[in-house]
Structure formats: structure tokens, C-alpha cells
Amino acid sequence: MARETWATRAGFILAAVGSAVGLGNVWRFPFITGQEGGGAFLLVYLLFVALIGLPAILVEFVIGRRTELNPVGAIRDLGSGAWNYLGWLFVAIGFVILSYYSVVAGWFLRYTLIGVLDGYAVADTGEAQALFGTVATGIDTLLFHAVFMALVIGIIAAGVRRGIEIGVKIMVPAIVALLVGLAAYGFTLDASTAAYGYYLSPDFGYLAANWTSILPAAAGQAFFTLSLGMGVMITYASYLGEDRNLVADAGVIASLDTLVAVLVGFVVFPFLFAAGLEPGSGGPGGIFVSLTTAFAGIPGGRVLGVVFFGMVGIAALSSAISILEVLVSYLMDELGVSRVPASAALGVAVFLLGVPVTIDLIFLDLFDLLADGVLLVLGSLLLALFVGWVIPDIAREELSRGIGDLGPFGDVWIWIVRVPIVVVVAVSLYLGVVDYVE
Ligand code: PHE
Ligand code: NA
Known about the structure:
Elements: H1 11-20, H2 23-35, H3 39-67, H4 71-78, H5 84-117, H6 125-136, H7 139-157, H8 160-187, H9 192-200, H10 204-225, H11 232-238, H12 246-274, H13 286-297, H14 301-335, H15 339-359, H16 361-390, H17 392-400, H18 409-418, H19 420-437
Helix pairs in contact: 1-8, 1-11, 1-12, 1-14, 2-10, 2-12, 3-4, 3-9, 3-10, 3-11, 3-12, 3-16, 3-17, 4-5, 5-7, 5-14, 5-15, 5-16, 6-13, 7-14, 7-15, 8-12, 8-14, 9-12, 10-16, 10-19, 12-13, 13-14, 14-15, 15-16, 16-18, 16-19, 17-18
Bound molecules: phenylalanine (PHE) and sodium ion (NA).
Sodium ion (NA) is lined by residues 20-22, 24-25, 225, 257.
């Protein structure tokens, strides 16, 4: 059986952008930024995306395109010995991430439905918080988690071409447009000046005092938001049967993803400040509390809210499918299971793993901190070591396909992967583990 490839020339980049843009930008970015002190975190995060995220995307792309295999097979093909376990680590990470990702995506579906049925009738932030409390856990939460996983399974069972490419074209521009509109509204609030100060001017004293928590948080968020460290970009590049300029593609993906995240900050912080809430107090509910308060207060807020929460739900779907696709491609390539049963079996397993998260948010914290603060960072670190030190020549050659002569860029890239990435990520990982164990 011939291996599938993307249906259109734009299919690959659309799917990769679809994977990157998701809950990491809209839900996770603002609450981590709030927790880690605002502008100081934003600065470190942006540096991480540009200096470490971008070269790390290329690391995954070259492995996938070179081998045309799932992450487990790809690494086995290129390396040997203990490297085989790295692919399995990716599969394990995928399980953990998708299990809680789906629960949070279910919250967005639920808020969409609340808007359709009742509107966002909250009189103040207290009521908005109470509403979030009813959405966050419970039997209905489990139901929405099930619905979301069923959608993910359905799309992945249908195959890479049809499922993934269509939605992204409309969705990403629509999200950007909505966010710009909401940010403009946030700008009109009296609290916006204080919010922008908090968000945009890094407090270097704060950074110096808190770098041991800011660094791992920024590393984890950068890898999470770019879908790195668990083989998604390896898998997507494995369906590329063509010589694209991977550097240009990585630039587009990282730029769009960063644009969406930064815009979300321009929406969330003015509203949090206007409601008199501590920017770090929102936690996983921050985006919901601030936005429902906002939507309740503006004309047309109900329609805006339905469109916004619905769009984010779709964005979450295009990210979630990329995670399940890693697991499915592994079962298909390695064990010869066919697509439909593989999707169903893995999807149900992920659903079950997510059940505790729908019962108590403690598990959300636990899974999220483990996956993000530790596992994704570990996956990226090992992959950088592998590409930089085990297969540098293959990697350089593969990167040049579709570009031609790399000039000094090829060596610069390999050396960034070999030393600075490894060192910075290893330090972040160490700090992240210490944090997790505490
Ligand atoms: N990048 C996705 C987001 O920002 C999340 C994700 C992480 C997807 C890891 C795939 C792999 O929402
Ligand atoms: Na993202």
C-alpha cells in the first residue's frame, strides 16, 4: 500500500499551522503568562520561540521528510540502539497531552453551546467564575470530552487528506480577525493602560528573581505551542512527498502561531484588569472568566462569543488530530494495524486517560505540568542531541532539499542544535523537574 501524502501543495503547511495554533495559544499562553509575571515571561518566551523553537521545528521536519515514517520508525531507521526508545517516549507523551487537551477543548465546546442556548448572562466576574466552576468538572464535562474525542477519532479515521486540510484555511484567518476586534475593544477599556504595562514592559528585577521558574515555563510553552517534542512535526513532514523549502515553512508556522498567542494577551489582560482580577489568579479558567464577562457586557456579545468559542474549538480539533495522528501512524506503520481500528482503539484509550481530569482539576495540573514542564522538553532535548551529534550530515543534506546551497546556514543551524539548544533546554528541563518534584 502506498503511503498517504498531502492532497494539495499547501496541505502540509496548512496542517502544520493547524496543529500549532490551538489551545496552547488561546488558553495556555495567557494563564502561564499571568502566572509567570507578564512582560518578563513574554520576553523570554519570544526569545525561546525564535532562537530555539525555529531550529527545533527544522530538526523534526528533516527527520520526517527523510524517512517518510512515523516517529518510532523514523528514529530507528536513522539511529540505532537506545535511540529506539525516543520514538516510544513521543507516543507516550502524545497520550498524556491529548487526554487533558480534549477535556479543555470540551470546555470550549460547552461555552459555545451555552452561548447558543442562553447567552453569556453573567452579571459580574463572580458569576463568570461560578459558571466556569460548573463547566470545569462533572458528568457534563465528561460528556463533552467524549464528544470531542469522537470528532478527533472520526477525522483521523477518515485519513490525512480529507480530514485535515480543509478547515484550517478559513479558521486561522477568522481567529486572527476576531482577536483583533476583541483586542480593539479591550483597548477602549480604562484598565488597558495598566494591562499593557503589565504585559509589555518586562520587569527585569522580577525576571532576575524568578528566572528558575520563568525559564522552564517558557521552554515548555514554546515547545507546546509549536507542537514540538513529541513527533507531530516528524509525522506531518513524513507525508510530504516533495522538496519544499522547510526553512520558509518553519518561519510561517512560528510567526502565525506567535501572532495568535500575542494577540490573545491583548484581549485577556485588559479584561482581567478591568474586572479587577489579579492577572495571575485566573489559572486555567482565566480566559473563560474574562471573556464571558466581556461578552456579557457588549452589544452583540452573544454572537461574538459563540463564534469565538466555536472557532477555538475547531482550532483545538486541528491540533488534537495531529496528536492522535502520531499514535495512529505508529500503530499502522509498525504493527500493520489499519487506520480505522487503530484510530478507534487509541482514541478510546486517550479518552479513558482523560477521565480523571473531568473529575478534579488537580489532574489537569498534574498532567499539564508533567507533559509540558518535563516530557516535551525532554523529547526536544533528546531529539536535538540525536540530530546534532548522531546524524548531522544527513540532517544538513535533507534541509538543503528544496532550497539548494545552504551556504553557512547549514553549519550554523547544526551548531545551534548541538550546543546552545542542548544547554538551554537541559537547564530548563532540570529546573522543570525540580519544580515538578516539589
Ligand atoms: N500546539 C498545540 C497548541 O498550541 C498543542 C500541541 C502540542 C499539539 C503538542 C501537538 C503536539 O494548542
Ligand atoms: Na500553539
